[in-house]
Design brief:
- The protein has about 220 residues and is of the alpha/beta class.
- It has a single domain, classed as 3-Layer(aba) Sandwich (Rossmann fold), CATH 3.40.50.
- A 5-stranded parallel beta sheet has the order 3-2-1-4-5, sandwiched between helices.
């Protein structure tokens, strides 16, 4: 074999290796995004917004198992004011999540909707941290969707003080298919969003959340 042929064979082998590695990474990223913790007792369970009713159902299940005795629901920004001006009543996602929790056996007195309005996970974590510090709590169980779990952990490390601890749990009723995430648009969008979100978290959040109702979120 001539030197030129040897070089070409080496280049071809490298290309094949890179293709194989690319396929493995592509197929495995869906599973890699799922990063949850073992359950242990905590002060509170926090339900992140989105993916109704699966997240609230999972929070209720954890509550019934006795790992915490209070559930917090975050309050996402919504078009209620704009719709009210049109004479249309809007029921927010947080209200529906509370109804799911009550239906699943959680006493209404053990459910609280956090006061701060949020538009993304960064602000949700910030609001949970503020309420924990305000109430003297140290450990929270955060319930979210499976592909969202790794980013929640990354944001917690970046935003929460070291004396506050998090247990991240995935909603098992969520239909996310970690092994075949590219087969439907819902999972493909989730993987894309979470991958970009992780890059932003690892870079210490250079991309900031958008303003709520025209006001800047400098406190977030």
């Amino acid at each position: 074999m001539t030197r030129r042929n040897t070089f070409r064979a080496a280049i071809a082998a490298v290309i094949v290796l890179l293709v194989v590695l690319g396929v493995l990474v592509f197929r495995g990223v869906g599973r890699w995004l799922v990063r949850e913790d073992a359950l242990r007792p905590a002060d509170v369970i926090a339900v992140l917004s989105g993916a109704m009713p699966e997240r609230a159902e999972e929070a209720a299940r954890i509550f019934r198992l006795g790992y915490a005795h209070e559930i917090w629901i975050t309050h996402p920004a919504n078009p209620s004011q704009a719709l009210a001006a049109l004479g249309i009543h809007f029921v927010g996602e947080d209200d529906y999540s509370r109804e799911v929790l009550v239906r699943e056996g959680v006493p209404a007195s053990d459910i609280a909707i956090l006061p701060g309005t949020i538009v993304d996970t960064e602000q949700e974590i910030g609001e949970i941290v503020r309420q924990m510090r305000r109430n003297g709590l140290t450990t929270a169980i955060i319930v979210t969707s499976p592909p969202h779990t790794r980013r929640v952990r990354a944001l917690w490390r970046d935003l929460a003080p070291r004396n506050l601890h998090v247990i991240v749990r995935a909603a098992y009723e969520d239909p996310y298919d970690a092994n075949h995430w590219w087969r439907n648009t819902r999972d493909a969008l989730a993987v894309t969003r979470e991958t970009l979100g992780l890059l932003n978290a690892w870079a210490h959040l250079p991309v900031r959340p958008h303003a709520i109702a025209g006001k800047s979120n400098q406190n977030h």
